C-alpha cells in the first residue's frame, strides 16, 4: 500500500514537472528538479511514455557527451474539456495534455434570460460536439467555469447573480443528458480558474489577483499556492464593502466593490449594451469628456478593497486581470494613492501593481487545465483505467 | 550533514510533542504520535532527559504490562523571558520549559508620555530583575510584545501609535544596557503573540482572531497555522476601513475599525481615564442609559471588518479576545447581523462567533512561549551550547 502510494506520488511529480516546464527537460534535469534518483526517474519516465502521457522529442547533441533527449507532455493522446458559462455566451474548449487546442466552440446565448434548463442544454450540446471532435481520445475530465459560488462538492451552483442563477444543481442537470452520463464533471468558480495560468508565471509568489468581468472576483495566492478557504470561496474581493449602506449590488447586498466597478454596473450606469469595450464605456461615462473622474471612482473603490485585503493578508503585490488589465496603467496612480493611504504594507515600501498577461479566455483555459487534474494527480490510476478500457475494447 | 539535520528535526519533533501535550505522554505514545520508531524515540528521549529538557514522572501501572513512564517538559532547568510594553505599563514574565512562572514583575509607567529611552530603560530594568530571580538558569531567549508593526528583522519597531513610537530601534536601544548585551532579544506584534495560546486550543482550525486592547489587532489562522504575510503583519483588522473618509485613527489614517472600537477611541469619546472597565465605559457612553446604541456601533463596525475579511479568506469562525471577550455575548447579535448581511460564507451556513478563553495576559504569555522557540526548534544546538558553557564554567 505504502509503495503504491509512493509510486503514484512520484509518477505525479514527474508528470507535473514535464507538463509545467516552460522548456523540455531531460531525464537528468528531471532528477535534479524532483530530487528523485536518476534510475527512479528513468523507470517512471519509461512507464509514462508507455502510457502515452509523456513523449520524447528528437535528441539534442551538445558537446562530446551523450545526446540529451527532451521530454514533452504527450500530444493528442487524451482530452480534457473546459467550459465557461458567461452572461451572454457559453464556450467550450478541449485540450490535450500539452495544452494544445483540440476543439473550440462558442454559442451566443443570453444565459440571464434563458431558462436554466436551456442554458444547461447549451452546455451539454457544446460538450457533446467537443467530444465528437476529439474522436476516440479518452476524456480526463470536464470542468465548468461559473461566475458564482459553487458548493464544496463541485456539483451545485449556490448563487451566480450575473447569470441569474440561484441554487442550480448544475452537474445533476447536465447528467440528465444521456450522452454525457459517463463524464466526470465539476463546476468551479471562474476567477479561481483564471488565476491558474498566473500561478505558473509567478512560482512561489504571494499576491492578490483581482479580475474584472461581468462581476468582480479574484483569488488569494500565498507562497505560490491558491488559498482555498473553508468552502473554496477565498478571494471574493468583489463583495467586500467599499461604501457601507451604499449602492445595491446585483447580489442583493449593499456597498460591494462590484456594485461600483463591475462591467455590469458600469454598463448599467452608462445605459449601454453588452458588447461595449471598456475604453468606450469609460468614455461614455465621462460626462464632460473627462475620463479622470470615472477612472478616479473605479480606482478609489478598487484601492480601498485592495488596501483592506492587504491589511488582512499582508501581501504587497496585486495583479489586475480581465477588463481591469487593459486599464491597469490608467487606474494605477489612483489605486496606488488609496492603497498607500490605508495599507500598512505601504509603510514597508512601495506596493507592486501589475497587469495580468492574460491569455485569451483565462477562465476557459484554466477550466481545461483543471480538467487535466485527475491525470496529473494520479497518473497510475489513469494508466490502470486506460489498460482496463483497452482490454474491454 | 543530512543526519545532523534529521537528528535535530526529530529531537525538535519529540520535544514539541512533550511540551504541547495536554497530558503526559509515554515513549510508546510519543512514537505513535510522531511516527518515529520506538528505538529512535527511546534514544532521543534519553538524550533530552540527559540535557534536562524532558523529565520522567513517577511510573504508572495499569493492568499486567510494564508500567508506563509519563514524560514531562523539564521544570526549573532553563528560563524564557517575555516582556509586554503597553501604553500604561511594562510587565515581564520568566517561565520554564513547562510554562511555569519563575518570575513576574510590573512597572506602571506612561509609555506614551515617557521618552523612548526611559521606556526602554524600564524594560531593561525588568529584564535584569527577572534574570536575577531565575538565578543560574540559562536563558533561552527574550521576546517583547509590542502593540505595533515590527520590521521583519525583529529589531525595529516601525510604528506603535498607541505607544507614541515611530521607527524605534528597540533591540539596539536595549543592547545599550550592558547587563543585557549577551541576551538574544526579538520584538513581535502583541496580537500575533496573544493568538499562540488560542492555537493550542484549536488544533487544525481556521479562524479570524480579533483582539481589542488599546488598539485593535488580530491574526489569521488557516488550518491551525498562523498566517505570517510578507512582513509578518497579517491580521491587521484594526486598520481595515469601515467608514471611508471617516474618523481619524491614532495611526493617522481615516475610517479604520480601530478609530471606532478601540479602547483608546471609546475612552476618548467618553472623556474617561486609563483604568476604566469596558462595562463601565459602555455605560458612560450610553447617553440615555441605553447600552444598545453603543453596542450597536461597536458591533456594526466590527461586523463589517469581519465580513470583509471573511470574503477575502473564506473562514467561518471568529474568535474575539481582549476587551472584546467580556462583551462578546452582548455584541454578538449585531456582529452576526452585519456579517450575515455581507459575508458570502453566511450563504453556506451560520458563522461561528466565539470568545477567547484568554488566559490572563495572553500577549505576555505568548511572548514567553515564543522566547522558548530557540530551544524547541533546535534542541540539539541548545544542548551543544549548554555543554560548551558547562565546560567554560
TrEMBL record, chains A, B:
Its family remark reads: Belongs to the ROK (NagC/XylR) family.
Which SUPFAM superfamilies does the record cross-reference, listed alphabetically? Actin-like ATPase domain, Winged helix' DNA-binding domain
An example Gene Ontology molecular-function term: kinase activity
Task: State the protein's name.
Answer: Putative NBD/HSP70 family sugar kinase
The protein's matches in InterPro entries, at most eight in alphabetical order, are given as: ATPase_NBD, ROK, WH-like_DNA-bd_sf, WH_DNA-bd_sf
Q: What Pfam families would the database entry show? A: ROK
Q: Which UniProt keywords apply?
A: Kinase, Transferase
Amino acid at each position: 500500500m505504502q509503495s503504491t502510494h509512493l509510486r503514484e506520488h512520484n509518477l505525479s511529480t514527474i508528470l507535473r514537472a514535464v507538463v509545467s516546464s516552460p522548456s523540455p527537460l531531460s531525464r537528468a534535469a528531471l532528477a535534479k528538479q524532483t530530487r528523485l534518483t536518476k534510475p527512479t526517474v528513468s523507470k517512471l519516465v519509461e512507464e509514462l511514455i508507455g502510457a502515452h502521457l509523456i513523449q520524447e522529442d528528437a535528441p539534442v547533441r551538445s558537446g562530446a557527451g551523450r545526446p540529451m533527449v527532451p521530454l514533452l507532455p504527450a500530444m493528442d493522446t487524451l482530452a480534457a474539456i473546459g467550459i465557461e458559462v458567461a452572461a451572454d455566451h457559453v464556450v467550450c474548449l478541449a485540450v490535450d495534455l500539452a495544452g494544445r487546442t483540440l476543439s473550440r466552440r462558442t454559442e451566443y446565448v443570453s444565459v440571464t434570460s434563458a431558462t436554466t434548463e436551456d442554458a444547461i442544454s447549451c452546455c451539454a450540446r457544446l460538450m457533446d460536439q467537443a467530444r465528437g471532435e476529439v474522436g476516440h481520445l479518452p476524456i480526463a475530465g470536464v470542468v465548468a467555469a461559473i461566475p458564482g459560488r459553487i458548493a464544496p462538492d463541485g456539483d451545485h451552483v449556490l448563487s451566480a447573480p450575473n447569470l441569474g442563477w440561484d441554487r442550480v444543481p448544475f452537474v445533476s442537470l447536465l447528467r440528465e443528458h444521456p450522452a454525457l452520463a459517463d463524464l466526470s464533471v465539476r463546476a468551479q468558480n471562474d476567477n479561481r480558474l483564471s488565476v491558474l495560468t498566473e500561478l505558473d508565471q509567478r512560482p512561489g509568489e504571494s499576491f492578490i489577483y483581482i479580475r474584472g468581468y461581468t462581476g468582480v472576483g479574484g483569488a488569494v495566492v500565498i507562497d505560490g499556492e491558491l488559498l482555498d478557504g473553508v468552502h473554496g470561496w477565498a478571494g471574493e474581493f468583489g463583495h467586500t464593502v467599499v461604501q457601507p449602506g451604499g449602492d445595491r449590488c446585483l447580489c442583493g447586498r449593499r456597498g460591494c466593490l462590484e456594485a461600483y466597478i463591475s462591467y455590469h454596473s458600469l454598463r448599467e450606469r452608462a445605459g449601454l449594451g453588452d458588447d461595449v469595450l471598456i475604453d468606450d464605456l469609460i468614455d461614455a461615462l465621462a460626462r464632460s469628456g473627462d475620463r479622470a473622474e470615472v477612472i478616479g471612482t473605479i480606482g478609489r473603490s478598487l484601492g480601498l478593497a485592495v488596501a483592506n485585503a492587504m491589511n488582512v493578508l499582508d501581501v504587497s503585490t496585486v495583479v489586475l486581470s480581465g477588463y481591469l488589465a487593459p486599464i491597469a496603467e490608467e487606474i494605477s496612480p489612483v489605486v496606488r494613492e488609496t492603497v498607500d493611504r490605508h495599507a500598512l504594507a505601504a509603510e514597508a515600501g512601495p506596493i507592486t501593481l501589475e497587469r495580468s498577461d492574460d491569455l485569451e479566455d483565462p477562465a476557459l483555459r484554466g477550466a481545461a487545465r483543471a480538467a487535466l487534474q485527475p491525470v496529473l494527480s494520479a497518473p497510475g490510476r489513469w494508466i490502470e483505467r486506460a489498460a482496463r478500457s483497452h482490454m474491454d475494447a
